Amino acid sequence: FDTGVLAGKTVYITAGPTREPLDPVRYISNHSSGKMGYALAEAAVDAGARVRLISGPVNLPAPARMERVLVETAEDMLEASLEGIDGCDIFIAAAAVADYRPTAVAEHKIKKGAEEIMELHLVKNPDIVATVAGRPDKPFTVGFAAETRDLVDYARGKLERKNLDLVVANDVSAPGIGFNSNENAVTLVSRDSELSLPQTSKRQLASQLIRHIAERYTQTR
Ligand code: C5P
């Protein structure tokens, strides 16, 4: 039978970037590798959870022992996140979702013209983690905050604004950690506490994070 701190629990994890098309051959995206989200998914499975990994386009192999849903856009990621959400106990948003998408996707490749300046019109994407955390019977919801200054203040702002239970804050200005690297160092911010986890591999950090998330989840239920 299942053992582990998350035995019998269902965990949804978003990971990687989203890709917002401009035309059939171009898109807007970012440098997220998906490593942190995938490491969290592995750690959650190790802790006994049933995991749905909702992933944008990444260069990582499909992990075993879990369901992976591949998506491209923020809107697709939202749809995959809401599917079966009533059965989700813990939602972890590790994806680097594009804040904006082109207002319209051109049917054909946009041609180069005579103009030197080209204007793009963008519209705000839905906030996935805030949508999940806004639901009446919301899962225990964890967000990430990548900041270059005032880490804890911004993280606490995000916690309140998006109605999250926990924010994993990381300082992306520090060299050798965060985006695309194999290591990370974070501060866990909740309404009434702050806890710093020192720099280590994303794998190590993921199991520490899952342990802390499981502990706090249990305290709230
Ligand atoms: O507001 P900001 O993008 O800094 O918040 C980051 C957190 O919110 C991350 O957990 C990210 O996965 C989540 N997010 C989201 N949907 C968006 C934007 C951010 O789920 N459209």
TrEMBL record:
GO biological process: coenzyme A biosynthetic process; pantothenate catabolic process
Superkingdom of the source species: Bacteria
Binding residues for CTP: D99, K109, P126, D127, I128, V129, F144, K158, K162
Cofactor note text: Binds 1 FMN per subunit.
EC number: 4.1.1.36, 6.3.2.5
Cofactor(s) for this UniProt protein: FMN; Mg(2+)
GO cellular component: phosphopantothenoylcysteine decarboxylase complex
Region (Phosphopantothenate--cysteine ligase): 11-221
Purpose of the protein: Catalyzes two steps in the biosynthesis of coenzyme A. In the first step cysteine is conjugated to 4'-phosphopantothenate to form 4-phosphopantothenoylcysteine, in the latter compound is decarboxylated to form 4'-phosphopantotheine. Catalyzes two sequential steps in the biosynthesis of coenzyme A. In the first step cysteine is conjugated to 4'-phosphopantothenate to form 4-phosphopantothenoylcysteine. In the second step the latter compound is decarboxylated to form 4'-phosphopantotheine.
Annotated protein name in UniProt: Coenzyme A biosynthesis bifunctional protein CoaBC
Protein source organism: Marinobacterium nitratireducens
Gene expressing this chain: coaBC
Whole-protein coverage range: 181 to 401 of 401
